[in-house]
Amino acid sequence: MHLHQMGPVQPRGIQFPPTAFGKKNLKFQPAWYNRYAWLEYSETLDAMFCFYCRLYGSQGGSVKQEFTETGCCNWKNALGEIGKLANHNICKYKIYS
Questions:
Q1: pLDDT for 96 beyond 80
Q2: What is the pairing mode between strands 47-50 and 39-42?
Q3: How confident is the model at residue 52 (pLDDT cuts 50, 70, 90)?
Q4: How far apart are CA 43 and CA 23, in angstroms?
Q5: In angstroms, rounded to a whole number, what is the distance separating the alpha carbons of residues 18 and 3?
Q6: Alpha-carbon distance 81 to 18, whole Å?
Q7: Taking Cα atoms as reference points, which of 39, 90, 42, 48 lies closest to residue 73?
Q8: How many C-beta atoms surround the C-beta of residue 51 within 10 A?
Q9: What pairing do the DSSP bridges indicate for beta strands 47-50 and 19-21?
Q10: pLDDT tens figures, 58-91
């Protein structure tokens, strides 16, 4: 089986660790998988990634490292019209996959 057939790593039923943002403790929300099918989560890094950009990102184009190499853990700015997930959702690797 090829990696693209396996799909993104989307653990469920685990305890996602909270991160302090000012006075709030925020954490990854598995419900985001329903809205962003390309989204994957690393338990080791406590960070989210883009499955398609990690898989095909080296084939050209401009891909942000936070969704391919370092991981994005900015839970405070993950959602909304200008949030990390909405902005990344337009990635061409997802459109053409």
A1: no
A2: antiparallel
A3: confident
A4: 24
A5: 30
A6: 23
A7: 48
A8: 23
A9: unpaired
A10: 555 556 788 888 999 999 999 988 889 988 887 7
94 pLDDT exceeds 80?
Answer: no
Q: Provide the token pair at 47.
A: 């960070």
The 3-state secondary structure of the chain reads: CCHHHHCCCCCCCCCCCCEEECCEEECCCCCHHHHCCCEEEECCCCEEEEHHHHHHHHHCCCCCHHHCCCCECCHHHCCCCCCHHHHHCCCHHHHCC
Q: Are 53 and 60 in contact (CB under 8 A)?
A: no
Which residue did the predictor score with more confidence, 49 or 90?
49
